[in-house]
């Protein structure tokens, strides 16, 4: 990526999947190419000891809006 002179951005995706997974979106902007970017969506298995950042399946939309 450095050879193209670009930027890397990381986005936390919300809502997160349930259980012990989380995902992140990575954007790689390429400066030497007009209006070009690469995207990578990464799904990770997180340690069971750490709490996942996503909401539980029992939360309804009304509960989340409170």
TrEMBL record:
Give a GO cellular-component term. nucleus
Provide the GO MF annotations for this entry. Answer: sequence-specific DNA binding
**Biological processes per GO annotation:** positive regulation of DNA-templated transcription; positive regulation of long-day photoperiodism, flowering
InterPro entries given in the database record: VOZ1/VOZ2
Q: Which PANTHER family match?
A: TRANSCRIPTION FACTOR VOZ1
Q: What is this protein called?
A: Uncharacterized protein
């Amino acid at each position: 990526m450095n050879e193209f002179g670009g930027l890397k951005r990381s986005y936390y995706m919300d809502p997160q999947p349930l259980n012990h997974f989380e995902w992140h979106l990575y954007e790689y902007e390429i400066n030497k190419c007009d209006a070009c970017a690469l995207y990578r969506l990464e799904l990770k298995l997180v340690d069971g000891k750490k709490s996942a950042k996503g909401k539980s399946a029992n939360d309804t939309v009304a509960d989340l809006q409170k």
